[in-house]
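Q: Predict the assembly, please.
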Amino acid sequence: MLILIKAALQEKIRQKDFLVVLGLGILLLLLLSTGTASVSINGESITSFSRMLGMLVTISSAIICLLSIVLSLSTISNEYKRHSSHLVWVRGISQTKYHFSLTIANFLAASLASFIIHLALVIYFVMQGQIALIPRLIPVFFMTLTSVAACTTLTSVLSLFLSPLPTGILSMLLIGTGLSHNMLETLSTLSDGISSSMIRLFLKFSPNLSAISMQATAFLRKDCPQLLPILQVIFWAYLLSWFLIIYKKKEA
Amino acid sequence: MKTRWMYLVPGILMLAAILIATPSGLPQADQAIYEAAIAFDENHVINSFPSYSIQDYTFRFFDGTHDYVIRDRNISKEKPFLRSLAATTVQVEGEWQVLVPTIERMNSTLSFLGKGQDLSSIDSDALQVATLWHEGFHSYQMTHFEENLAKYMYLHDMPENIESFVAEYIDADEHLKKDYLQAEQILDTAIASKNLEETKRLASEFLDVYYSRRENLTEKARQMESLYEMIEGSAQYIESLIYRAQAGEEAYQEYYMTTDTVAANGISKYYTMGRKICLVLDKLSPDWSKDFDFSVGLAELLAKNIEEER
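A: Predicted assembly structure:
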């Protein structure tokens, strides 16, 4: 299993699209943090550190989730397309172990990308003179890994059934809902109509990734984060992972 | 097969932890806020409007899915009466009740609107308690003085969309805005004055500017302004006293009395004006609120006080 994970991980890192998206993500983060680009809410420009902090955590989470989906999109489908899977079956490795190994490789590659994004945040903190906050980025990085786990597991599971394009669309939809969970929940409480019920139904199936960003921001602001939202996202990813165990592809 | 059974274990443990940690019922934070509000009532912390007791009114805490209704210290869960994320007063089966979002729901809304960070300098617990007193005060007004309000202010004839009305007929006129700000600045000086005679003189000067400005308003606009100053101004006045009692003088000054609170646009200026008239009345006639029955406007009451002094 470890060999499978290592091989899949090495292939991931070699991919050009990984480097391109990662590079764009870091650039965007640094542009926003240095004020070259600008973010405004209600027409008011956000420039103070405290206000930028929440925004940066949210944006970096979104970039990391996007990277996680991109990295996980074609892993399993490419293996079956190239018939590499047969090389695995002949060695008596089960589908479960194979799919799990590929998913773990996706997770590790996305974690590496997440680590690099967090290094960009370290640069921002140094530029803002907030060096004392850098050690707090370590637990924040681990909190973000729960979002990574959710994204990579979801995309890997969907890629068992669907080709890359519908996998990507559905993953973006569910993860996008998860990243906007708080906002959508607030909107849905304001009405009783069908659209409101549909939003609430979709929210039930998506992981609350906005809560992860909120806990990370709270921790950076020296507040006490809540563990319940983090546990809920991990459990969501765990439930999805059962598909890796239960579902058997016919090619095997 | 054995692996699958082993893989079940972390899932069961996580599920158990989630079920134990997931709060049910009215969140503790909201219960604490309610209890703190009641404690101010029981300890008679403020002397204004002594006939107002927050415990007399039912509170509905809306968490986005249900209303947690507190009535006589008992909490029950009901279907939401109104899906609103703003604190307000509603009439439920003939009873005026307070409807407020839970703290979590409020924070989510503020965060959504990008306002969460604006409140980082405010004592949010104190503000929550003060908000309960503010909305409870509206229940008090509507329960005991609805008839007076209706008779005096043509309540049935108010503009449907107040904000649009104010924007179109009042805020669009720069002279009206300028005069309003001038009147408010005179009030600020009166409030800060330590000399009773000077306070009276400034109150008189305020009324001159105030009434002179109103000559340029339609009757409907005058009624609307008076109504909002009286209903919302007095409620914000109560709110500010509770906030001061909990958060302290410095926090109170920063939140309620800095120049940032002078807002020329929208209806919030009537809240501020009404509150400041109440503060001047406190200086001139400390018992003014004891028998106040909302049958006259606050400016009229101030004029009456000055007249009586003469």
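Chain B has two domains: 23-143, 154-309. Chain B touches chain A through 28 residues (CB under 8 Å).
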